[in-house]
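tool=predict chain=A
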Amino acid sequence: MNCITCLIGSAIGSAIGGPAGAFIGFWIGGVIGGIIGNSDEEQAQKVNFQAQRQQEADNFFEALMMLSAHVILADGKIMHSEMETVRNFLRVNGFNETMVLRGDQLLKSHFDYYKTYGQYSWENRVRTACYNVSATLPVEYRIQLISYLAEIAKADKKVDTEEIDAIHFIAANLGLDPSIADQFLSISDTYSS
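tool=predict ok
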């Protein structure tokens, strides 16, 4: 852009003031091109930053649904109460209904992946999701994430050993002491473990 404005300025300056006008026009064109170029560059940086932030948000949402699916699948049963706990969590935390539906679709996609590829491949994906979350969330938010996952485990009024193991696995891969999950999984006598 800068070169074009220099040439245009030079041509206009030459027509008005001869060779000296061409030089002045070239210089003015360069200044104008620099101003326009900078605003275009700044705008491109803003667009890149916004796109990067959106990609990070999408990656986090995907990881959140992956970790939710891991806890839901742990006991071998996909319970309506667990799915509803995820939906309510999304609604309470400001996600619109489109995102709640997207969450449902991601969960179902994760369930299908687990059925197709099995435990080993699944656990590798869960580890990757944990790594991505750890890279973006400070410790206190990771602890809150464990609290949310414990709510999924408790949603059907029964916390199975497999669900406890699943949350311990996630906590360890989030860089947390797995025993931190135990305080969120402490349950009343009405629950069985």
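Confidence is low (pLDDT under 50) at residues 188-193. The longest helix spans residues 2-73.
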